[in-house]
């Protein structure tokens, strides 16, 4: 059954005639990375909302580095929904949106116990959707911590 899902979602790796494997569906090419990093570099936020994300961008190596933890939260909660929409397949983008919405929901200082129970139920589905897309090496203890944090 899992093999059928892989074929249906075009996640199956295929070797080309040069012996190289095709790129994963969530992989961005250099042009896409450049567009994203130039867009992030040009972003302006209200004072105190985030640090200057443009300083965290290296356009030569196309890398993002030195983000503060709050900047990472802003990126996860606010930028992922708009940044990757046109560059990733819909099922990958939807999985990332679910993670983004989860982080938005749990960042509030006070939570309704009913909302927490619903979030706890949805975490398993979100992680399952991510596991269908990303390789096992993507997951580490931080995912387990976020799941455990919602345990009532």
Can I get a quick summary?
By secondary structure, the chain is an all-alpha fold. It has 6 helices and 2 strands, in the order ααββαααα.
Key features of this structure:
two-stranded antiparallel ribbon
Structure description:
The protein is mainly alpha-helical and 152 residues long. The protein has two domains: 61 residues, no CATH class; 65 residues. It contains six helices and two strands. Helix 3 packs antiparallel against helix 4 and helix 4 packs antiparallel against helix 5. The protein is flat, with a radius of gyration of 18 Å.
What is the topology?
Elements: H1 2-8, H2 30-42, E1 57-58, E2 63-64, H3 69-83, H4 90-106, H5 113-133, H6 141-149
Antiparallel strand pairs: 1-2
- Tell me the number of strands: 2
Specify Rg, calculated over alpha carbons: 18 Å
Average pLDDT score: 81
Oligomeric nature of the chains: single chain
Compute the separation of the termini in Å. 33 Å
Percent strand equals under 5%
Share of residues in helices: 40-55%
Strand order of the largest sheet: 1-2
Instruction: Estimate the global geometry from the Cα principal axes.
Output: flat
- Write the H/E string, N to C: HHEEHHHH
Instruction: Give the class from helix and strand content and strand pairing.
Output: mainly alpha
Pfam families: DUF4218
Organism: Sesamum angustifolium
Domain DUF4218: 110-147
InterPro entries: DUF4218 (IPR025452)
């Amino acid at each position: 059954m899992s093999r059928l899902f892989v074929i249906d979602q075009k996640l199956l790796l295929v070797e080309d005639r040069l012996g190289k494997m095709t790129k994963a569906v969530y992989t961005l090419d250099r042009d896409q990375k450049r567009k994203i990093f130039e867009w992030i570099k040009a972003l302006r936020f209200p004072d105190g909302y985030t640090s200057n994300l443009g300083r965290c961008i290296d356009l030569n190596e196309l890398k993002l580095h030195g983000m503060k933890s709050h900047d990472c939260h802003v990126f996860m909660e606010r930028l992922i929904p708009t940044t990757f929409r046109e560059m990733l397949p819909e099922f990958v983008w939807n999985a990332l949106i679910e993670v983004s919405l989860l982080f938005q929901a749990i960042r509030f200082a006070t939570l309704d116990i009913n909302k927490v129970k619903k979030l706890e139920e949805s975490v398993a589905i979100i992680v399952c959707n991510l596991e269908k897309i990303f390789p096992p090496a993507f997951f580490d203890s931080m995912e387990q911590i976020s799941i455990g944090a919602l345990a009532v």
